Each structure stands twice: as structure tokens, then as C-alpha cells.
Amino acid sequence: SKVTSLGQLEMTWRSRLHFHPLLVRVLHKSRLRYYGKPEKKVDMPYQAYFEVADGSGMMSVVLWNSLCPEWYNSLKVGTVILLEQYGIKTSYPFKTQPTPGDSQLKRFATIEISLNVRDPPTKISIIPEEMVKPEWGLPDVKYRFITRSELDDLPNNHSCDVIGLVTFVGRAERSRKREHGEDFWLYRWAHAIDGTSDQPFILELFATSQPDVFEHIHPMTYLVCTQMRVVRDLTENPSNTIYLTTSNESQIFITGWHKGQPYTKDTKVKNFIQWTKTQNEADQMKKTIIGGYYPFPRPPNDFWKY
């Protein structure tokens, strides 16, 4: 059938009521957002957005309400989808932006694609990977993996992906989203090593929309975290604490979830797997820790500085 491109859509959307189908690949996926309020009568007040791309560039797609429970778990990073009967609106200006793995990819930021149950009722079709044709020109998913030895040179808020062998995982903790509010963020600390440094990655992992993964992070699992942000101590007396925290678009994968993921082709991931084959499992097991209270960043040694 006639398929349009994201580039054509951006140029012609104001002059059209109906749009041709879109054939795109999912490059990024946000966590699921619940926006329910007692006074608003919405059956399923959920929202999630995806960054999708074709040969012309990348654009945001917003999944609304009851389409979220139906489609959120099926639309994975790397999935190719055909979209029919979608809406177009101007972009929400305060949305977080993932850092694309391919810096050459053009970003269409003025509009976003809206997927709804009605007005118009969107039709989503997943194209199996073996049926995807090279002539469609869909970009591959690209990553920004770093090793632990490269981390110390990266600036605050830099976006990256990491893979490591988990040596410590803390208990789940909560922090208030707002002071005096009743909503909490759930998170846990983890350490992961990759053999390139004596120091581990220190990871602050917030519960994304993957509870089945978040609850099963154990020592000795291979952990992949995408779209992580570097956090540096920028105070006048830096304690040299540097760690990584999840962003709105982070995805977390553990042993058992890696098969078929696009990152398995990445060179740094392959190098990590080669390194793990040289390690003695029993030796590494002795160094692992689970649970307990983890005060981080650590307070200064001197009470006056504290």
C-alpha cells in the first residue's frame, strides 16, 4: 500500500486530514506514565511514548489510555511497526528526550504521532523481523556502550549504555517524588563489573515499567542498562563519586532476557562476553553481596565537613 515517510509527514501534516500508513522501527521506549486524578473520569489514564524512525529521521509516537495495556509490552526497542489511522499534533514541549545512538539521524521535534482507541481508532501491526526488507531503508538500533575504564572521563549528565556482571544489589528503597507528597519512586543500588577497571559501575536503578526484571536483579547476572545518565559530584569539595542513574527511556535486561535484543551485536557487548568466559565463577561468587543498607554518596570522613 502507499506508505508515507516521517519527513513527508512533517512537511504536509497541516494540509491533510487523513494520512498514509507509516512503516517505522522503534528506537527508544519510555516508562509507562499514570496520569489519573480523582476528579478526571478516564478509564485507563496511561501514556507512554516511543521514538520511531524510518529512512528520513526520527519522531515521537504517543500511546494513549487503553492502548497502553494492550500494546506497551509488545512494542520493544527494535520492533518494526505499520501504523494506520493515527493522529498528528504539535509536540509537548516538556517531554524528556533520549540521546540517539546514531547522531546523524535527523530529529523531527515539531510534531508527534498520537495513537488512540478512537478519533481516529489507530491500527497497529507488528512486522516480524524476518519479513523486514532492506529496501525499506529502516535504520538499525544503535547504542552508546561504554566500559568502566571510560566512565571517569565522561561529563555530568552524559547518556550511555552499560553491560556488567552484577556483584552487589541492594534492597528496594523509596524516596518521595515531592516533599509532603504521597507518591514514591522505587529504586535500588547495584554494582556491576566489566573487567576494564578495579572499580565497579555504581548504578542507581529506578523501577521502570519492567517489574519482572527489576525484582530479579541478582549477583552474577549479566546486566544491561540503556540510556543511563552520568551523575558527578559537582560541589566545591567533590568526593569523586560518579555513578549512573536511569532516565525516563532506560531499559534494563538481565540474564534470560538478552536473546534477540539488538544490543547483542554490539562490539563492546561481545568483548564483555569474551571477558566473562575467562572468569572463575566460584571466585566471583565469593565477592558478591546482596541486600542491606547502602549509604551513597558516602558522607565525608570528617564530621565538620559533613
Automatic annotation (TrEMBL):
One Pfam family from the record: RADX
InterPro entries listed in its UniProt record: NA-bd_OB-fold, RADX
Residues of the signal peptide: none
Coiled-coil ranges per UniProt: none
Record-level Gene Ontology MF annotations: single-stranded DNA binding
Name of this protein: RADX protein
Native source species: Rhinopomastus cyanomelas
